[in-house]
Amino acid sequence: MKKEYDFSKARRGAPLSVKGKSRITMYLDNEILDAFRALAEQSGRGYQTLINEVLGDYLTRSARPVDARTLRRILREELKKVS
Fold it and tell me: What pTM, to 2 d.p., does this model score?
């Protein structure tokens, strides 16, 4: 180790920035966090990665366009209400 280090050009924060990701603070229920940590332990992956994947999957599924079968069902239900 050196006796002195030059920190004149140092900056606070994470040493490496990750493009496409943002650091946030959020509150989760302890049960939710415990469950993700247990899943992470079983899978050998990080619990934050698992939470990110679950949120991404949810957004992908909920953003899907409505298929013809579902649209027909919805229209039938709405037409029954009007009749």
Answer: 0.58
